[in-house]
Amino acid sequence: MKDASALYDDYYESIENESLKQIFPLFHAILNNFFSFMNQKLSPGYGGHFNADPSRELIDVIEAFQKLQANFKKSPVAFELDPYYMDLIVRCSSFLSKSGGSPIPSDFPMIELIEHRTIFSIVERRGS
Predict the structure, then answer these.
(1) Neighbours of 102 (CB within 10 A)
(2) What is the pTM of this model?
(3) Distance CA 77, CA 24 (A)
(4) What is the pLDDT of residues 11-38, one digit of tens each?
């Protein structure tokens, strides 16, 4: 996945924290990979079925993202995820299952992948 994340490296060049400078492009690539696969499994208006392994893996990715965000929340490098992707994660969390795959709801929309800009940003601190 490191090769795929290289596509997003330039978008995060301005991130000063070296760990996040490497993690953000990786998470960006992973999320886009899962969202792209979900689009393939989705029939708008009818829903679909998201396979068991990708369901478990996406749950793990979401949990890892949430832990990382929580760990940095009170630090100088607290970060946010693009609101559109954050909404997708919340929606996916409501139907993803660790066993048997996950039924994609009929009202779930096709996902517009964010490929040409950042999805992560450092939270600006005021009065620090």
Answers:
(1) 23
(2) 0.92
(3) 12
(4) 999 999 999 999 999 999 999 999 999 9
The model's pLDDT over 72-115, given as tens digits with 9 standing for 90+, comes to 999 999 999 999 999 999 999 999 999 999 999 999 999 999 99
**Is 42 inside any structural domain?**
yes
Alpha carbons 43 and 109: distance in angstroms, whole number = 9
Q: Provide the 8-state DSSP code for 77.
A: T
For residue 52, give both structure tokens. 């068991």
Q: Say if residues 72 and 78 touch (Cβ distance below 8 Å).
A: yes
The answer to whether residue 127 is domain-embedded is: no
CA contacts within 13 A on the Cβ side of 83: 0
Q: What is the span of the domain harbouring residue 31?
A: 2-122
